[in-house]
Amino acid sequence: MNAPVVIAIAVIVVVFAGLAYAAFAVTRRIAREDEDVRFFDALKVRGALPPSPGDPAAMRAGAQALRRCLACSAKRACDLRLVTGSWPALREICPNQAYIDSLPTL
Fold this sequence. Notes:
By secondary structure, the protein is mainly α. Helices cover 70% and strands 0% of the residues. The protein folds into 2 domains: 1-32; 35-106, no CATH class.
């Protein structure tokens, strides 16, 4: 084999190894979480209503937001900001801030 082919194969192997590690790290973080989901607490702090169960598109968007919350790496910071009850402070770090801001409030 010539050098460009060997280099291309090496690059592909490195990329796939990186992707596999990233998938493993996210799965491990989600799997070891036995805590309450902070998503619903964030809704309460904002005063937002959860999505309507009769609307499939709204439920799909809510499920995506819940998955983002589960995969979030800022859980400790989130806990500290949830205690204050301040949505502006929480929305600075929340991956669901745009979704939660789009929901109707009480």
